[in-house]
Every structure is written in C-alpha cells, then in structure tokens.
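QA checklist item 7 of 12: single-chain prediction sanity check.
[x] sequence parsed
[x] length recorded as 295
[x] structure emitted
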Amino acid sequence: MQMQIDSFILYLATERGLSTAYQLSVQQTLDKLRPWAEKRGHQAWRDLGTDDLTNFLTDERKGGLDASSLRIEMVHLKIFFRFLVKRNHLEADPAEPLLPPKSSAKLPETLNAEVVANFLSSIDPTQTLGRRDLAILELFYSSGLRLSEICHARLETLDLDDNFLRVTGKGNKTRLVPVGGRAKEAVTAYLTSERPNLVKPKTSSHIFLSIRGGPLSPDRVRQIVKERAKRAGIDQNIYPHLLRHSFATHLLENGADLRVIQELLGHADISTTQIYTHVDQKRLKTVHKNFHPRG
C-alpha cells in the first residue's frame, strides 16, 4: 500500500508537475487513510470499497475536520483511486461514487462604508510611505483586488487615462478592473512623488515597492494594512481581503448587478459571488430587527 502511495506522489511530481505543497497535502491524506484501513484489516487498496471510504471521511469529520477540508480530502481520494485503476492495480474505482459534503458557507466579514472612509482618511500622505500605503488601500477598496493582484501589479498594466488596471487573477485569467477617482488620485500622487525615491538600479516595473526598491511581498502588504488599521484606532481585525469583501458588499448595497460584481471580482462561477447577497440579506434583517417597532 505504501509503495503505491509513493508511486502516486512521484506521478504527481513528474508527470503532472504539481507543486510540492500539493504533493504534501495529498500525502497527508493518504498517510491517514493507510493506517486507518490497516487497523480495520485491509491489507491492500483493492480491499476498500465505497462504504469504507465514506466511513473514513465520517471519522475525519468526527475528528473535527470542517467541510472544506473534507472536500479536499475527497478530491485526494478520487484522484488516487483513479490513478490505481488506470495503472491496473484496481478493477473498479471505489471513490467514484463519493459525494462532496454540504458546505456550511461562512459569510464574509465586511466593514461598513463609514469605517472604510475613516480608515482611508486616517493616512497622512505627507508622512514617510504615506502615499504608497494610501494608494494600496484605495486600490484594494476601489477595485476589489486580491492580495496577489496588488503585489503583482505592474506599471505597464495601469492605464490612468482610461482609469483601468489589468490584473491576472486565479487560473491565470486576466481582467480589467476600474480605478475609482479617489484611488486614481492616490496612485497618481504615489507614482509622481514617492515611487521615484524608492527606485533602485535593479528595480522592476512593479507598481508598489519596498524601501529597498523591490516588490512588496504579500506578508509585507498584510503587515502594512494591519499597522495602518492600528494607527487609525480600529479594533476590528483588518486584513486585505476584508477590503475586497467590503468592495463587493457596498456595490451590492448600492444596487450593482450581481453579474457585474462577479466580473469585477474575477469569479469564474456566479455562485461564489452570491455569498454577498446573503451578507446583504443579513444586514437587512439586522436593520429591521433594530429599528422596527415589532422587529
């Protein structure tokens, strides 16, 4: 059983070219399944049926694994047993009938518009790196960008004449996002008055630079956001994706079409974007309960 796991991980690395992180994730799942199976008297993968795999996943859930992690483990099982069938180690695929667990979708956190406005206005652009940090935060909120999209944004992808930024998101998909008026002002001020001072001989065309002239890392941008929130006196946990969530929620609250929001966020599936309708419904219920005489 272990030899076939090793053979499968080698296949993922050499023939599929999948990342080391993904290989380790699959390895962890199979390293849990093998002793689980052996403890129940199964000495070969052919001994396992669909009911056995279902029981394994049930035990994983009882052990505290959430629905999203269970879904990932199920994918690992499916691709592993499909591999065994293709390599003629098994006649039938016991993982094929498995159904994914129902998702208990968590509603995304958001900031209300007033908190966002106070957060952004708290940054003094005349302070050291103030223009850079304000431009980053304005773009997060104006354009609904992901953290990776901010970090990878380059000068040649920015068009401040037509107020668009071309970004490459998940799945290597490219989209155009609008740059709002306030964000355009902040980015222009940064590019004109601050970025030239950060440029070093080997600086790339990344828009946002560190004091050493290199591109900002995701961890550094997270740190900048948290530091700026702390200086603004905001007690809530602030992180980059929170501004993306707020961007989408505020668009929906103000009447934007869900399909437009999907396109702006770069979601491949509308069902991903629909989570924001639940946020809006939850807000409406809260307002009704708080302010209606019989709420």
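[x] summary fact logged: DSSP finds 14 helices and three strands in the chain.
[ ] second reviewer sign-off
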